[in-house]
Structure formats: structure tokens, C-alpha cells
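Lab meeting, action items carried over

1. Structure of the two-component assembly. Owner: GW. Status: complete.
Input record:
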Amino acid sequence: MEHGAKSRYEIPVLIAVVTLTLVIYVARHAEWFGYLQLSAGLSLILMLLVAGSLIWILIRTLDGNPAGRRMVFLYVAVAVVLPLSMQLTQKIEVTPEVNQLYRGLQALPHGAKVLATFDYDPGSAAELQPMAETFFKYAFDRGFKVIIMGLWPQGPAQANMALTKVLSEERYKVKSLRYGVDYVNLGFQSGNEFVIQRMGGEFKSMFPTDYNGTPYDSLPIIRNVKNFSNIDYSFNLSAGYPGTKEWVLVGVDQFGFKMGAGNTAVQTTGMYPYLRSGQLIGILGGMSGAAEFEEITKYRGKGTKFMLSQSFSHVVVVVFIIIGNVAYIMFERGRATEKKKKA
Amino acid sequence: MESGLMHHVALWLAAFLTLGIFSFLYRDNTWYKVCEAIFVGISAGYWFVAYFWDNLYTKFWVGVWVTPMADRPDDWYVLYVGAALGILMLLRLVPKVGWISRWPLAFIVGATAGLYLVTYFASNVMLQIEDTVRPIFGAENDAPIYEIIGNIVVAVGTFTGLIYFFFSKEHRGAFGRAAKVGIFFLMITFGASFGYTVMSRMSLLIGRMDFLFSDWLKLIK
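Predicted assembly:
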């Protein structure tokens, strides 16, 4: 079928898919059957089947029948979804930059004041939310006092989502952590890097109240926090501007506090120069950074779970790059032969 | 509440929008266009509301009119300057006096340049140069072999990369060969950056798939 052309099967297939989805939704929410869990053996067989079918596509390409773009999308989707239900674990090696960040946190004493800045929105949650959850777990277990804020409007809401999830776990329920004493959310403040600049003078000038409108001075955790000199460590989660770069340039270099950062993979390469020069203590880069952070702190969560999908999908992408190049070479060779014939 | 009706409505709405965006992979269609328009509209609306309540209401209205004089900071009257500049910016919508909107823009550019002039130079130039020309064998000649190699790579990469961007001299001879080495370093950097970008996009896809199969359909734990 030509791409873009309508098929007479489209409507029946759509109706079948919607019906099946409704049945699965009702059945699973009513718990008529359990979760889909693929054993290690079955997972291996499925992976071999995918590998075999990719070889078949390569052979078809060599025969002059390249696969369409929808086939690539389908394979990537399968490579992402299948590992989510597999009962396999991937060994995760902790890189020096993650190790450095962890050592920085480990060196802090009980009761240390940590400024957690959330500069991202739901679009980057897949990469940064696992880092946030792991950070909160580690911070609360070590008895750190966590001060949350955001230079992105949705940042503090993302922090609250991570907090709600972590605090609902039995391990943290029994700690009876108190808002305003053990942690506080100062909310969002507009002004980008100028907010950091003003916070260097006085936090209160930028955050006269917290996220809920409670006056700054009535919150015990921050009552004695005037500016960055009263902060022991800063942990920034960033997905762009304003983010880690602004915190380094305007915050770390001017006011001299220690900072570790978790970044989306896209911007991680741009942050490495700051790591080498010591302006950043450590970096968590993308989903692999989140998984490594979970590995080193021993709080295994979604970062670790997603890494199998990440690895499998990367292998599929690499194989399709090879197949694409084979198809290109075949096409070029065919064209050269045709030219020769014409000549 | 997790089991409430609104929870199910929210799940279906999120799934409908997610699948609508994915449907573009099959073919451009109305469903995709509707979802795209909703996304753009909600994003713009969210930012407008967030800035309205944060700036106009909380800072200006409450700061100038509601807060008692005794509770105001010393420089509260600066808010009038901010409000005036904001109004001037809106004059862009009136063609006859639209040129006035350049004043607040000039203020923003000037203030940002002023803030960054020193910080950029200190952080992005001086500290980075200092890091590039660090002693190859370590400060006390005790650097491990991987660090020595790293120091050499950074120094050579920076130097040859800069040569590549020096267009006042023709890239020939030894100069041209150094520029070629610079291109290799640039390509490796772009490759690493692209690899991270692929990982980032895959992460987003994994996030949505996790939502569809874990939160929505509850098929995967």
C-alpha cells in the first residue's frame, strides 16, 4: 500500500483495536487476570525471534525489497514495550560522574540543608522523575533538610509528585517527616537567572512565601536560611533554560556552593566541561544516569526498569541504521548499473 | 482518588492524546492535528496563567495595593518600574506607537548582558581555559595514565578545533592538517551529542509506553 493512501482495512482494524483495548482495560482494572510478565526463558526466545526477523529484513533488503518506514516504527515500539514486561535485569555500571555526585551527597552530615531545584516539566519526566524520587529517598534516609524550588512553573509540581510517591512508601511513612521541618517547597519564581542572583543576597526576597502561601519566616526549616551561605549542597534537575548552566554561571561561580546536577541526555554533553573544571561535583546524564544513581544508592526504581528497553531499542536502531545503509548502497549500485547500460 | 471516575477520565484523556500524537507515525490525520492543537493551546494557556498569577497578581497587585506598607520590602516601589516596562512592551500591539516596546526590550538585553558580561567571562572563558591548560602529568607529576591521556586529548582537541574555526588563513599544509584533526574532534563531539539525543528521545518514548501499558491498561507492573 502506498504511504498516505487509505486502506479498506483501516476502519475494521481500528474498531477491533478499540474493542480489544476496552476489554483489556475493564479486565485489568477489575483484576480478572494478572500482570503480563515474561519469564527469562520466554524473554530470550522473543529477543531471538526479533533478531531473526531483523536478519530476514536485511536479507530482503539485499534482494532489493527494503522495509517501509512503518516497519521501523513498529520494531522500535516492540523493542521498547517487550522489555518492560520481561523479568530480566541488566547489569548497570556506575560511571565516575555519577559516583562523584554520590560521594558529594555521602559526605554531607545528618541534618544538612540541601537545595533541590526542579527546572523541568512533564515532557522530561521520563528521564528526570526517577532521579528526583531516588534523591528524595536518599535525602530522607540520611536526614537531610530538603528545600525545593523551581525556575520552571511546572518544576515544583513535579517535585510534589515525586514527594507524594516517596512519602507514600511505608519506609518513609514511619519516619513521620514533617512539611516545613524536614522539607519545604518554595514553589516557582519567574525571572530565570536573575532569581539566582537575588537569592545570593536573600532567599526571602524571591520567596516571601512557600508553595502554599505560608510566610517564609514561619517555616522552621528555612527560618535561619538567609542565602546560599546557609546551604550545604545544591541538587539541580534540569531540562533546558533556565537550568544547570545558569545555576553554574550565576550561582556556583559567584556564591561558591557545591552543586550536583541531573540533566536530560540532550543537554548532558554541554555540561561535561563544568564537571571537569570542578564547577559541578557530578552529573546524572539522562535515563542511564538515573539508573546508575539508583544502582549506587540501592534504590532501584523506574530508571533501572527502563534501561532494558533503552538498550534493546538502541540495538534495534543500530541494526536499522545498518539495514538503511545496505539499502542505500544497493540503490546507488543499481543506479550506477543503469547509467552504464544507458551509456 | 485513584479509583474515582475522574481518575479513569484523566487516564483515557491522556491515552487518547498520546495515541493521537503517535498516529502521525502511520499517516498525517485529523486526530493528530486535534491533539497537536490542544497541546499548543494548553501550553500557551498554562504559561499565560502561570505568569499572570505570579507576576501581575502576586508581585504587582498584592505587592503594591494589598500588602500593608509596614510589611513591604524597602524597594517595593521598583515594582512600578517593572509594571511600566511591561505596559510599554504591550504597546507593540499598537502599530503607531509600537516602537516604544523597544525600550523594555533594551532594558532586558542590557540587564542580561550586564549580568553575564563578567560571569560568562569568568566561568565559561577563564575557568575553561584554565582547565584546558592544566599540567599534562598532573600538578605533582602523579596523574594516572588515563588522566594524562585525557589531558592530552582535551588540549589537542581544543587547539585543533580552534584552528578549524580560524578562517583568516587558508587551510593548507600543517595548518590544514591541524584543522582536519579539529574536524575529527568536532565530529566525535557531534556524534556523542547525537547519541545522547537518541537516548533522550527513546527515554520519552519509553515514558509514554510505560504510561500506556502500566498506568492506563495496567498490563505491565
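2. GW to write a short summary for the group page. Key points so far: Residues 1-73 of chain B form one domain. The two ends of chain B are 20 Å apart (CA to CA).
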